[in-house]
Amino acid sequence: MEMHQIRYFLAVSETLNLTKAAARCNVAQPSLTRAIKALESELGGELLRRERALSHLTELGQRMLPMLRQSYETALAAKAVAASIRQGKAAPLSIAFSQTVALMPFTPALRELSRAFPGLQLKLSRGSASEVVEYLKSGTAELAIAGPLSETWSRLDAFSLFEEPFDLVVGRTHRLAGRNRVDFKDLASETLLLNTGCEMVEELKASLDANGTLATHQVATQDDLLVLLKENLGVAILPIGRTEMNGLCRIALTQLNLTRKVSVYTVAGRPRAIPCATLLSMLRAADWGDTGTERRGRAH
Amino acid sequence: MAERVPISDVLEEALVRCRNLDAPLADRLQAFANEVRRIGPHFGSVVDALVSRLVESNAGATAPKVGEPMPTFLLPNEEGRLICLDDLLSEGPIAIAFNRGQWCPYCRINIDALARAEKEITAEHRHVAAIVPDRQKFAMWLKSDAKAPFPVLTDMDNGYAMSLGLAIAVGDEMKHMMVTSGWDPSVSQGTDNWMLPIPATFIVGTDGIVHARFVDPDYRVRMAIEDLLAALRTAT
Predict the structure, then answer these.
(1) Could you tell me the end-to-end alpha-carbon distance of chain B, in angstroms, rounded to an integer?
(2) How confident is the model at residue A296 (pLDDT cuts 50, 70, 90)?
(3) Chain B within 8 Å of A120 (Cβ-Cβ)?
C-alpha cells in the first residue's frame, strides 16, 4: 500500500466527507476516490460506504483505521529521517519521566540517539502521574515514560515496555537489612515511606490495608523518599527492579504481589519529530528481558 | 476434540531439511512450499489468493526502481545500535534484504542462504543488511538461527517498508490461517497491526542509487543468490 492512499483514507475517516477530505489533502476528489479504491482492492474489501456528504467507515474500515494510522505515523518519520540526520542541526527532544521510573535503563538508547543526532538537545522532566499527563497534553513533553497513568485521555497512546515487581526496601543499616524475605508482621513497628506522586500509590495503599495498616510518612518526591530511607526514617515498598541499589537493601515481602508495567506514552495524532519517533521505535524494539507480551493499547 | 498440533510445529523438521539442502535458494524455498501444500492444501490456496490480489493491485510497484535513489533509513540493529544506510554505504555496495520475520520459514531459509553467501560477498568488499518488522529479541533469534554475520535491523510497524510502498496488510482470512498454523507475527512485532513487508531485495551502490532490485509480492519467492552476487559485483 502507498502512503498517499492511507493519508487520503485517514482524511476521510476524520471528515466523513469525500469533498472535504479531498480539499484537506489538496487533491481532486476523483484522485482521492481512485486511491481509496486501490487501497480497498489491495485489502480485499470496502473501507467506506460512499455517500457524498455522509460517508462512513465499514466494519473493515473501522478495524483497519488504527492499524493503518500506526504504521502511517511511523512511515512519516521514516520518510523524513534523511533530511534530519544529514543536516546535523539542533534536534530537541523533551521526555517526561515519572518520579519513580529509573533513568538508567534508558541511557543506552539515549546514547545511541545522541550518536545518530549530533545536534540532539534533551530536555528531561520528572513528575507525578498527573503531571506527566499534563506535560504530554501541553506539549511540554513529546514522549513520556511512566508506570500506569490512571488519567483518562483518549489521545494517550501507550506502548508497554516491561514489568517490575514491588519489593520492600530498607536502608543498609536498618535492622531488617540482609534478610531475604520478611512478612507484614515483621513491619508492625515500622513507619512506611509513601511517595504520594507514585503512579501506583492507590494500589499500594490498598495492598497495605489488606495486610493491616502501617503508620506512614508521606513525601511528594522520590528523591526525598530515598533520603529518608537511607537515614532509616522508615521503610518503603518500591518498584525497584531496575533502580540502582546504592545504600539500600531489597527484601522480598511475602503476601505482597504487586507489579507495575512501565510504558512509553505519546499523543496520538500529533506529528512526531524525528528524534522522538526514533526513540519511540528504539524503546519498543528493545529487548527488555522479561516479557514477550508487550502490545500496544490505548491507555484508559 | 483432540488438540491439533499447529502446522508450524509439524513442519519444523521439514523446514530444517529444506533449509539445509545443498541446492539453489529457489529450490529450497520451493521444497518447503511443497511441504506446506502437502500438509495443508487449503493454506496454499489462501496464500495464492492473497498473492494474486497483491499482484492485481500492483503492490510494491512504486518501490525504488533501478537508477533511483534508495531512501536512507535509521533503524536499530539486533543489539539496539542505530544503523543508518549512509554509514553502511560508506563500507561498499550493499544488498538490503527485507524479510517478514523470525516466525516465517521462508525468511529463515532466505537469511540462511544469505549467510552462506557471506564469504563470497565480503571478499569483494560488498555486504548485506536484513530488515524485519520484528523487535530486537526476534531479530537476534533470526540472526543466530542462520549464524548470520550481517546486521538484522528492526523496522517497527513496517514504517520504512511502508514509506517505500512495500507494506501489505495480511487480511482476515490469511491472519486466521496464520494464527491457527502457529505463524503469528504479532508477538515478534509487538503490535497487532498484521502488516508485513513484501520481502524485496535491493542492491544499492555507494552513490545510494539502486543498482538492481527484486520485488515480488509472492513471499515464497526471493532474489536468487546468484543474481544478488552478480548485481553486487557490478555495483560500485
Answers:
(1) 60
(2) very low
(3) no
Cell numbers representing residue A295 in the block: 502490545
Closest-CA distance, A46 to chain B, in angstroms, reads 12
Instruction: Give the whole-angstrom CA distance, residue A184 versus residue A251.
Output: 12
Q: What is the ipTM of this complex?
A: 0.94
Q: List, in sequence order, every residue forming a beta bridge with B82; answer none if it has no partner.
A: B76
Say which amino acid occupies B89: L
Which run of H or E residues covers position A98?
A: strand A91-98
Mark yes or no for CB contact A74/B162 under 8 Å.
yes
Domains, in order of start, for chain A = 3-84 (1.10.10.10), 86-162+261-298 (3.40.190.10), 164-259 (3.40.190.290)
Domain ranges of chain B: 7-234
Distance between alpha carbon B223 and the CA centroid of its chain, in Å?
Answer: 10
Question: Domain B7-234 belongs to what architecture?
Answer: 3-Layer(aba) Sandwich (3.40)
Hey, is the C-beta of A268 within 8 angstroms of any chain B C-beta? no
pLDDT tens, A143-166?
Answer: 999 999 976 788 899 999 999 889
Distance from the B164 Cα atom to the nearest Cα atom in chain A, whole angstroms: 8
Rounded to an integer, the average pLDDT of B76-96 is 96
Residue A10 has pLDDT above 60, yes or no: yes
The single-letter code of the amino acid at B101 is: G
- CB atoms inside a 10 Å sphere around CB B120: 13
Mean pLDDT of A96-120: 93
* Residue keyed to cell 529457489: B26
Inter-residue contact B174 to B53 (CB < 8 Å): no
Minimum distance, in Å, between the CA of residue A263 and any CA atom of chain B: 13
Percent of chain B with pLDDT over 70: 99
Confidence (pTM): 0.92
The confidence score (pLDDT) of residue A84 equals: 76
Q: Return the number of other C-beta atoms located less than 10 Å from residue B204's C-beta.
A: 25
Q: How many helices (H) and strands (E) does chain B have?
A: 12, 9
The Cα A196–Cα A218 span in angstroms is: 7
Supply the pLDDT for residue A239: 84
Under a CB-based contact definition with an 8 Å cutoff, are residues A231 and A172 in contact? Answer: no
Q: Please check whether residue B80 touches A, CB under 8 A.
A: yes
